[in-house]
Amino acid sequence: MFQQLKNIDTAFRHVRLFSLLFLIGAVAICCYTIYRTSAALERNRHEIYLLVNGKLINAMAIDRKDSLSVEIRDHVKMFHFYFYSLEPDEQIIKRHLTAALYLADNSAKQEYDNLTETGYYSNIISGNISQQVLDPDSVLVNTSQPPYYFRYYGKLRIVRETSILTRSLITEGAVRVLNAVSDKNPHGFLIESWKVLENKDLSVELRNNH
User: Fold this and answer.
1) DSSP letters spanning the chain
2) Are 124 and 97 in contact (CB under 8 A)?
3) Is it the case that residue 91 has pLDDT exceeding 90?
4) Is the pLDDT of residue 57 over 70?
5) 191 close to 154: Cβ distance less than 8 angstroms
6) Alpha-carbon distance 153 to 166, whole Å?
7) For residues 36 and 78, which has the higher predicted lDDT (pLDDT)?
8) CA distance 186 to 167
9) Amino acid 26: pLDDT
10) What would the pLDDT profile of 4-18 be if each residue is shown by its tens digit?
11) Using CA of residue 58, residue 63, residue 64, residue 69, what is the dihedral sign?
12) Does the pLDDT at position 28 exceed 60?
């Protein structure tokens, strides 16, 4: 009788151990399934589809914070290109400056007004001067807190009838994130408190027009 009770007790322990192992295995499988499902959902959350020429194209979305400094630098470059790349044509000047002023606040408008009062743009037209902003040496951006401070280091190439003048261009300001984007402001940023720190002659090259 005692042997029979011992066998029952042993069998009970085996059943309990088996049940415990089964429970642990079931919990592990559930946890693994939840992990894989969550990972798949996270990947899918970053996938977007674009309809291009009637074809569905898969693309990958990323958090804006991961590309913030890149976007700010491009916005700053666009602004300086439009503000300073000018030709002796009133329509081109107007088109470029209008595009630039969509990317910045009143501080850029004040600089435009100052240049207008000094006859800067009329001199470009009357003197047949072409002005081009070269690729910037660097655009430093601090994204630690908004509005995001930047400093722009670049050069201007000014082509006159008898010479080519190269000038340094250093500016600074802050970039504020807007709540919407548009065709005129594709990044949805606005440059604030913009000011020119340096704009001085670096070199002059005489042109040979003969």
Assistant:
1) -HHHHHHHHHHHHHHHHHHHHHHHHHHHHHHHHHHHHHHHHHHHHTEEEEEETTEEEEEE---HHHHHHHHHHHHHHHHHHHHH-B-S-HHHHHHHHHHHHTTB-HHHHHHHHHHHHTTHHHHHHHTT-EEEEPPPSEEEEE-SSSSEEEEEEEEEEEE-SSEEEEEEEEEEEEEEE-S---SSSTT-EEEEEEEEEE--EEEEEE----
2) no
3) yes
4) no
5) no
6) 14
7) 78
8) 29
9) 75
10) 545 666 765 766 766
11) negative
12) yes
Res. 135: pLDDT tops 90: no
Residues belonging to the chain: 210
Residue bearing tokens 């280091």: 153
Quick one: residue 142, left, alpha or beta (phi over 0 = left, psi -120 to 50 = alpha)?
Answer: beta
The residue with tokens 């807190």 is 145
